[in-house]
Amino acid sequence: MNIKKLIKKSDLSITIILIIGILVVINFLSYQIFHRWDLTENKVFSISDISKKTVGELDDVVNIKAYFSDNLPSQFLSVKQEVGDILDEYESYSNGNIRVEFINPGDDEDIQRELYMIGIPQLSFQIFEKDKAQLVNGYMGVAISYGDKTEVIPAITQDTRDLEYQITTKIKKVISDEIATIGFVTNLGTLDQGEMTIAGEELEKLYTAEEIDLTGENGVSSDIDTLIMVGPKEELSEEQMKGLNSFLARGGSLFVMIDGVVVEQGLQAQKNTTNLFSFFEKYGIKVNQNLVADLRSGMASFSQGFMTFSTNYPFWPKITSDGFNQDNVSVSSLESVVLPWPSSIEIEGIGEEFYSYLAKTSPKAWVEEDNYIIAPNSVIPSPENKQYNLAVSVNGEVSDPYREEGAPEKINARIIVIGDSDYIVDGFAQSNPDNLNLFLNLVDSLSFDEDIIKIRSKNVSSRPIKDDLGESTKAIIKYANVFGITILVIIFGMIRYYLRRKSKFIDEI
After folding, report:
1. Both 266 and 204 in a single domain?
2. What is the pTM of this model?
3. For a surface tag, which of 76, 156, 296, 503 has the fewest beta carbons within 10 Å of its beta carbon?
4. Residue 191 to residue 420: CA distance in whole angstroms
């Protein structure tokens, strides 16, 4: 029996030595061949193929300087490591055309002055030392340079999920000769940009933005590539409509978020009086003046007297993955968007090859067309349910509705219409991250490179349980989530205990 135990111990020692040897060889080879295995579904911990392609096709050197102070609080040390890891990937896939350098500005006044000039600010951090709170200054920024052009990420946050998107778009921006210019319509009763500061700040990271007054004499200036209207409520003159058509005819893109019914404070609803509805119908887009409700809906908070309560509110339809067009990269990776008080949209008179829906309700939706009773305690689901389009796009040749003599009969129209404007205001953008992603993705699809949409959409924001599951099935999933791992560990432990007892019994024999 002692001889058997000795043999077992000898075999174990040999096995351990072999494993250590294999690990040493693998570790050596890993320095020679760069590769990272990312087992997450959307590859959130490694750069995407788009980023690899972007840096792999560089024809000259792009310098990336990461400015991190050595005196940062301990909670930011992991951020520096994550930045280093992702920049290592960019460098490895760039064929030598990405050069990364980490710099500690310290007390060097020349470096600090240079950082101030390019837009990387000095940050203040609170640290606790010797039982006292102290403020220290430091830097956590990145500068990306190509030739005489420089783009910066002023401050890296602890949430680095969008870091790849920022780096890749900055690289694209410094190597591109032209970046699209976005025009925001500021008249016609549109939403004030102060109500959508989050979306505005995100757009300015990549695009140049200008304010456009359609009532002005010049109309849409020639340098505008994409025109955005958020919540127009007033009428346009015939000349202004012709100006919009001329903008489309010369290759401009139009992105409109329009309410068929305007809902104001106190849940007072009335039809939108703008004549833009007739303008869109000339291109085959009919925005209905109704309110869409859906049993699959978002949570809304309401006040009643001194009480505040939250409830699923059918007039805030929730669009989940099966409601997005999976053939359209702009929306295919979205998981959960909430559209408050939207209107349905139909396409009329355009060939199918030019039309695509972007988002639609669940099959359990209905509409209110005239009598807008939308208080949460007054909602009565309709027995006649179906799916409704809430966002559509047209990209193709349509008859020019304002054709002048001698001009071509058709124009190549690029138009996206969403039957709701409230979804992108700051409150909704904060509580529903995919609302912001929807807006930015659609702007990118009209204005820039659709490939970068895949980077932004890597991070899943929501994975709700499907509404068509029964209550018992939902309960099983819920409790399996809570107790499943614990039960598996207990079962594994019992099996191990049984096998060890059995092995010990055999050895004693």
Report:
1. yes
2. 0.72
3. 503
4. 12
